[in-house]
Amino acid sequence: MPASRVAVTVGASGAFPLAFLAAFDPGDRVVLTSPFYPPYVNILTALGIEPVILEAGPETRFQPSVAMLDRMDPRPDGLMIASPCNPAGTMLHPEELAALAAWCDANGVRLISDEIYHGLNYDSPIATAAAFSPNAIVVNSFSKYFSMTGWRIGWMVLPEDLIRPVECLTQNFFISAPYISQIVAEAAFDCHDELRGNVARYRRARDHLLAELPAAGFARLSPAEGAFYLFADIADRSNDSAAFCARMLREVGVAASPGVDFDRTRGNRFVRFSYCGPEQDMRAAAERLKAGDKSVAGHNRANAGTAMTPGHGPRRRTIHDLRC
């Protein structure tokens, strides 16, 4: 990979508008699957590019497939993918990514691959779109694996035809990424022992939550192959994920993101858990959720909101009562 194909950016967030402006014209159509990271759609829309959203589910691990794209008529101008992805934490396996890249090249569709969570994969091998297509745009950042959130430093791997357009856009929008952040990013390449320790910690937290959350009533979880997210289907407990998360935080002390942030049609029945925090906090959260669920079992449902215990005030409602 020649250095001329790498553009240093103001984080991944700074890379997306550069990529979209260089690759597309107003009115072009870029397809992505839901659930998705919300800024993809927001940035595309702000630039006058039409996001085309396809629904993906557990059968494809919430990822796009060639079969889904083949059903599109007319063909889109671009395909936006993320592996590992936010919010589901799932990945495109190498053969799947290769097939998508080949489909894009065969159909004249520009592939943009968000690989910001590369390095945070656990059981499945990881691959980059740059290995399968010289026409793909790859976006990455120092925020996740390198633990440099807030330093606003990232990079893109560009196809030859977009090097000069991105250079011109960067000069007008940003001039350059912060100099001090570039120096720190160079130093981060010498910190892999510490960074691998972080990945091991995330793995332990993930494994613990996958084992314990079903006992707290969260039985339908995404495979969690990478990143640090679990996407939980709560359809049996709520049809309002925003209200569910608000009550879970208020009454159980566990924070999660409502699925409506990531899926505008089905997100009301999903929540996203993040396990990137301290390992002891992840274990404590699981215990709070489980304890809340168990405490309900011994009480009459009709009195769940007002049950009294000797020497205490009204019992707080538990996570299992959250049927919004």
Protein described:
With 324 residues, the chain is an alpha/beta fold. The protein is built from 9 helices and 10 strands. The chain has a 7-stranded mixed β-sheet, sandwiched between helices. It has a 3-stranded antiparallel β-sheet with strand order 8-10-9, covered by helices on one side. Helix 7 runs parallel beside helix 9. The protein is globular, with a radius of gyration of 22 Å. Residues 294-324 have low confidence and may be disordered.
Largest sheet: 7 strands, mixed
Oligomer: single chain
Shape type: globular
The percent range for helix content is: 25-40%
Give the CA-CA distance, first to last residue.
Answer: 52 Å
Physical arrangement of strands within the biggest beta sheet:
1-7-6-5-4-2-3
Radius of gyration: 22 Å
Mean pLDDT rating: 90
Strand content: 5-15%
Helix/strand-derived category reads: alpha/beta
Strand count: 10
Low-confidence runs (pLDDT<50, min 5 residues)? 294-324
List strands and helices in order, with pairings.
Blueprint: E1 6-9, H1 11-23, E2 29-34, H2 38-46, E3 50-55, H3 66-70, E4 78-82, H4 94-107, E5 110-114, E6 137-141, E7 154-157, H5 163-173, H6 179-188, H7 192-212, E8 229-233, H8 241-252, E9 257-258, E10 270-274, H9 279-297
Parallel strand pairs: 2-3, 2-4, 4-5, 5-6
Antiparallel strand pairs: 1-7, 6-7, 8-10, 9-10
Short description:
With 324 residues, this protein is an alpha/beta fold. Helices cover 35% and strands 15% of the residues.
Keyphrases for this structure?
single chain; globular; 324 residues; alpha/beta; disordered C terminus; three-stranded antiparallel sheet
